[in-house]
Amino acid sequence: MQNDYEIGPGTILKVFSVEETAEIEKSWMNIFCKNKQGFNTKAYKWQIFSGGGYPSVDGDAAREEYKMQSAEKFVMLPNDGGNAVLTDCLPQACCLSDYYVFPLNMAWVMAFTHEEGWLGPYFAKHKNYNALNKDNLMQVKKAQQKAEAKKKGWI
Fold first, then answer.
1. What is this structure's pTM?
2. CA distances in angstroms from 26 to 77, 116, 117, 138, listed in the order given
3. 3: number of Cβ within 10 Å
4. Which of 35, 48, 62, 135 lies 20 to 30 Å from 118 when distance is taken between CA atoms?
5. CB under 8 Å to 63, separation ≥6 — which residues?
């Protein structure tokens, strides 16, 4: 599998297969686009947010929420097909114009749009955000503890 995405900062840990990407997209749609009637989510999934079909914040408020998020790994899902990727850092830049970033458990999503400045970006939280985000923070803490133990030669 080839990766043609430029994402930064961080390292791309995995390029998901076409089948895996389809499953990720299906799961994402089941969470954030259940009420998609009347929204053109086939063209742009983020229209669920711009049209008010799922609660979100946009623009600078979305960017601020996004900067505050933490997880061990992040999924970048392109809007226009292509393979999703897994990265080890919260992406700050990507060569795509329409894409979604979220942790593996989909506690939240940041939707970047080609209409930024007019429509988007959008930041939305899963309905179970608090519990899911708590899990994300615990995973980050465990990874930090493991790295520290490894650095000290304990493992």
1. 0.88
2. 11, 25, 28, 26
3. 12
4. 35
5. 121, 123
**Could you give the CA distance from residue 28 to residue 99 in angstroms, rounded to a whole number?**
12
Could you read off the pLDDT of 28-52 as tens digits, one per residue?
A: 999 998 876 666 677 889 999 998 8
Contact predicate 117/39, CB 8 Å: no
DSSP at 148: H
Helix or strand holding residue 103 (H, E): strand 99-103
**How many Å apart are CA 120 and CA 57, to the nearest integer?**
9
Per the CB < 8 A criterion, the answer to whether 28 and 111 are in contact is no
CA distance 86 to 15: 6
